[in-house]
Amino acid sequence: MQEFFIDPNRCIGCQSCVAACSECDTHRGTSMIHLEYVDRPISVQTVPVVCMHCDSPTCAEVCPADAIKRTGDGVVQTARKPRCIACNNCVLACPFGVPKMKVELSLMMKCDMCYDRTSVGLKPMCASVCPSGALYFGTREEIEHLRPRSKPVNQFQFGAQTITTKVHMMVPRTDAVTHVDVLSAMEERPLDDVFEEIP
Amino acid sequence: MSSQTPDGRPYHEQPQWRNDFPIDWPQDEYVARRDFTKFLVLTSFAFAVGQLWIVVENFARKRRGRLPVRRIARADAIPIGGSLVFGYPAPHDACIVMRTGPQQYVAYNQKCTHLSCAVVPDPKRMCLHCPCHNGSFEIATGVPLSGPPRRPLERIRLEIRDGHLYATGREVRA
User: What is the value of pTM for the model shown?
Assistant: First the structure.
């Protein structure tokens, strides 16, 4: 089974993935992937942000119109056009900042891991063009062979919320890392006490 | 592989709305046999009730549409060649009845079919005359003879019962 692996260390900020994504016919001209700066004042390091396809998708949980659906193989899809009311709940709720509100279409659009391609065994557009291998789509054996010093992790922490995802993030193999803290990658850090209320 | 619930408990322990509005596409598309049967029964029940309602409504409409039978006058109160204005079906819907022979009566709505002026009998020309635009109608049939009107007058059905003249209905003709 082919899986998606993100290796932010390898991202060189070339925006190839962004260009490739916007070339796709299903949403031509609009990129569903974007690059996030880790800490712009001190570094130019970027992180590609694609949908992580959570096992319990927060965007779908908060959707009041029942518009966001997850397919049987675990891919969270763009909001259904007849149902989406463009309320922005998903945009605000997503721990990774993935959903994008297309106001002119009154529709939330997000990365669906190039469902038209990956469902027939092709690589997603972004992974097929990434020159440095920051975005990789392949089997677990391939990634272990290619990145012997890294291991995939699909546990994330967003405040008190633990998130398990379909997409994996590569972390150093020697580190005893079990999860990635999403907040520590945010440019603007929320106040420390924001999540202390939540048990 | 269905999605996990936020609190991690299985689906059968979740509130009903979570099962009614599942996040997963296959569950969302799935229609249970029981739900489908319920839908079929309720829809056909609604159709059946609708048919019954149409029948009842048709019956009521027919009853409503029937015009009243109204006495006009004694049949011999109108001289031969004479006429009488009466209201039918409502008292203010002016109609005119004319006695053209010993036992021959005709009645029309007085509204001219051109611009609704009241037509009056013209004994000299043997027609119903509309003074507004000089239109005229044949007395025997009510069809327009001259002037601007193009449609015949609305005819009132008459009946003689025990020497009394009754209006029983009207014929709207094109």
Answer: 0.62
